[in-house]
TrEMBL record:
SUPFAM superfamilies: P-loop containing nucleoside triphosphate hydrolases. This is Type II/IV secretion system ATP hydrolase TadA/VirB11/CpaF, TadA subfamily. Residues 202-326 form the AAA+ ATPase domain. It comes from Marinobacter nitratireducens. Keywords: Hydrolase. InterPro entries: AAA+_ATPase, P-loop_NTPase, T2SS/T4SS_dom, T4SS_GSP_E_ATPase. Pfam families: T2SSE (PF00437).
């Protein structure tokens, strides 16, 4: 529970914000049409005027903080602004006005920020959605959206969220880790990098598997950098995160339904369409649903070297999850036929994990070398074990 002093500050902030909104209307100032400097001066003068008129006891530091926070309220996303600007923050999780957490270097920690109340959280959510034409109300209490910088946002409000409105933001970064960065950080060895590079250049179909926050998109982006420059690549994502420095690339992105429930474009639609675009390789950001059917068939019919990611804790679990996705999306075939399809389509699984200290690493690289008895027979190409201190010990597999 916030202290009395903190609560009084939050109440003051709420009153000043409402006052400033009224002043903007009275003066006819349109936030989107004035420069940041003009808006900052307007906010500074009016906040100072309000505090002086009401003889509110505030230190110089508190007045500076209040002015900055009101500026964020008027022109940005309120308490989220400093977290969005902090490059060390990867995820922002708002569980309620006073419960804000961030992920830094793979470790969750409480953030030194808060919202005024539940209405404040909802107001910020709606500000995020306003330019997108998306709706959030009791009849539509869940939404996925994207900030102007590409960050992914999921929001959910009562009555679905029992304890109040919630926001989850996966930040988008322009600075993907390079292959050498991953080696330097201990995410993989130099031998592993050489192995993965050869697999990509030799047109192996690769599936990157791992749990939430293990760095699947980072690895997929890194692998994509080694695709030969003369090849045509089509990427398909829910939110465009891959940054390929490639001369011949077509980027496709799914689209949710509009407020009338029409216009939805799924990953499966885009995979089907991509096959008509003469790609040499298809890169699917993540396998989640029926698109797995078309992706496996594409890998089997002339689009070698295609890649995707999947949520799974082990390489074996990844295959089981693919089986499940095929079944629930209407792929009607015997267990043996399903096994042969998967085994003949996928060549390599790159399994990722995250240690207790937040370090992400390539825990295993396996090649599928199925036969009649076991279509999922695996050969280890690379493996990372840990010593007694929890430090990774990378070794090349016996299959090399």
């Amino acid at each position: 529970m916030a202290s009395r002093t903190d609560q009084e500050y939050q109440n003051l902030k709420k009153r000043v914000h409402y006052y400033l909104v009224e002043r903007l209307d009275e003066e006819g100032v349109e936030v989107g049409r004035v420069s940041n400097d003009v808006l900052a001066t307007f906010v500074q003068n009016n906040v100072a005027g309000y505090v002086s008129h009401h003889r509110t006891p505030l230190s110089a530091q508190d007045l500076t903080n209040l002015t900055r926070e009101i500026q964020d309220e008027v022109a940005g996303f309120g308490p989220l602004e400093p977290l969005l600007a902090d490059e060390s923050v990867n995820d922002i999780l708002v569980n309620g006005p006073e419960d804000v957490f961030v992920e830094v270097a793979g470790v969750l920690q409480r953030a030194n920020t808060r919202f005024i109340d539940d209405d404040h959280v909802v107001r910020i959510i709606r500000r995020i959605l306003a330019p997108l034409g998306r709706r959030l109300d009791e009849s539509s209490p869940m939404v996925d959206a994207r900030l102007p910088d590409g960050s992914r946002v999921n929001a959910i409000i009562p009555p679905i969220a029992l304890d109040g409105p919630s926001i989850s933001i996966r930040k988008f970064t322009q600075k993907h880790l390079t292959a050498q960065d991953l080696v330097d950080r201990g995410s993989m060895s130099a031998d592993c990098l050489e192995l993965l590079t050869k697999l990509v250049q030799n047109r192996r179909n690769i599936l990157v598997s791992g749990g939430t926050g293990t760095g699947k998109t980072t690895i997929l982006n890194m692998l994509s950098q080694y695709i030969p420059r003369e090849e045509r690549v089509v990427t398909i994502e829910d939110s465009a995160e891959l940054q390929l420095n490639h001369p011949h690339i077509v980027r496709l992105e799914t689209r949710p339904a509009n407020t009338e429930g029409s216009g939805k474009v799924t990953a499966r639609d885009l995979v089907i369409n991509s096959l008509r675009m003469r790609p040499d390789r298809i890169i699917l950001g993540e396998v989640r649903s029926g698109e797995i059917i078309e992706l496996l068939q594409a890998m089997n019919t002339g689009h070698e070297g295609s890649m995707s990611t999947i949520h799974a804790n082990t390489a074996r679990d990844a295959l089981v999850r693919i089986e499940t996705l095929l079944a629930v999306n209407g792929y009607d075939a015997s267990e043996r036929a399903v096994g042969r399809l998967i085994g003949s389509s996928l060549d390599v699984i790159v399994q990722l994990s995250r240690l207790a200290n937040g370090r992400r690493l390539v825990s295993e690289v396996v090649a599928l070398a199925g036969d009649g008895d076991d279509p999922y027979r695996m050969e280890s190409l690379y493996r990372t074990d840990t010593d007694e201190a929890g430090e990774p010990i990378p070794t090349l597999g016996s299959a090399l």
